[in-house]
Amino acid sequence: MSSFLKNLLAKHKEKKYGKGHRLGDVPTQQQVNASREPPSSPQIANSLKSEAARLAGEAALQRLQYSNRPAHPKPTTSVSQPSKSEAEKAFALKDHYFGKKEIVDNVSLKPKTKINFTSSVFQPGEKYPIEEVEDKIEQNLIQNLEMEPILVSVTLLFTANYKNKEKLDKCVETMNKFVDNIINNPTEKKYRKIRLENPIFKEKVYSCKYADMVLKKSGFVAQTVKLDDEKDDDVFLFEGDDLEKLENLKSALAIGEAIVPELDRDVKVLKIQESSRMNDFSLSDDFFNLKIEELRKEQALRNEAVEKAGMLRTKAMRERDEQMELRRYNYSIIRIKFPDDFIFQAIFKSKEKFDVLYELVQNSISFDNIPFELIGHSLKKPNGNSNLMGLTLAELGLAPSALLYFKISDLIDPSIKSKIHFYLKPELLEQAQNF
């Protein structure tokens, strides 16, 4: 069973039965001993983490330095190069046979940074572009349907309809009413039958994707019955006396939640050989809410309007431009340069708060309880980063890309700073790559 299903099942049991403890449960000797031990000193823990980071950092530097060496040393003997006229003849011949390609301005030959999404139901490392990920999530849930039919079908219902919350809420509310009627009146046959042509059921329940699957997995059977006038009528009929299925359905609906695609941070640790490349970003069109051509056209029109206005712009014009700027970018790629010359890189949504960026960096460094700041051209504000919390990356000018610098707070004793040789966690340094 996947970790997702285990968590879902545990949540369902807690909702249905509440938290509890088995009679006779006693703490193990190991737990007793652990409870008597004093908490470890933060300084000792940080010292151990710092030493592990130092070893990992030195190993990473050695590996990256070795990877820079050419696999086959260049021969010392000189090799004759074709003359300029010979090269020109070769290019002319190539153009004659293959056609001459136009040179496109400002196009990078490097692979562009792509936007992908992952999910709690995927395997580690599994990710897809936005146009595929939602279908992949549903396919994954369907593959696990028979393990927990009611829980998974309800999760499918929430996942496929979460974008229309009002419609989903009405579906769940109406489905609960039908189920309550059966539970409260178990011997009344009229409550066990739900007509597909029932206007309320048709509009509020049956119109939601996977609603019919939820009913079928909860004990309902699709049938065609004869009405009094001998006409056929399609219904969902609850058969048998297993009302526990309906109780489980109510519990699942109460804790139901959608499996929403999660942005893949695509975390990387880079060792940049040339400082000029730190600001060298290569972004795909996914980063922009407008296409590149539209951005250029918009900028040209804006420049023209400003020139016509004689550079005089009202407050309303400035505010309108600021709002346009905030809507311009979908994502942001952020690089954090550390004093040891390693760079931490991750992808964010431009509407995410600065808090998310700060927390990710905090969880990626090899020491605890040492305050730090992220500084850069957009973050030159007093009182550290505390006044940036709550602001989006777009509002701070950190979209679609930005380079920030990691700095340990000036309040920290210099003797403590001097003991830090490498900053990122060992498992991240092990993944470092040259850039």
Order of helices and strands: HHHHEHHHEHHEEHEEHHEEHEEHHE
Largest sheet: 6 strands, mixed
**Helix/strand-derived class?**
alpha+beta
Question: Portion of residues in helices?
Answer: 40-55%
Please work out how many helical segments DSSP would assign: 15
Strand order of the largest sheet: 9-10-7-8-6-11
Taken as a percent bin, the fraction of beta residues is 5-15%
Mean pLDDT: 78
Poorly predicted residue ranges? 21-42, 74-82, 89-109
Give the termini distance in whole angstroms.
40 Å
Q: Which geometry do the CA atoms define? A: elongated
Radius of gyration: 31 Å
Would you report the number of β strands?
11
Description:
By secondary structure, the protein is of the alpha+beta class. It is built from 15 helices and 11 strands. It has helices at 3-17, 29-36, 42-67, 84-98, 130-143, 149-161, 165-184, 199-204, 211-217, 244-255, 292-308, 315-326, 354-362, 414-417, 426-429; strands spanning 117-118, 193-195, 220-226, 232-238, 262-263, 268-271, 331-337, 342-349, 372-375, 401-408, 433-434. The protein has a 6-stranded mixed beta sheet with strand order 9-10-7-8-6-11, covered by helices on one side. The longest helix has 26 residues, at 42-67. Mean pLDDT is 78; it is low at 21-42, 74-82 and 89-109.
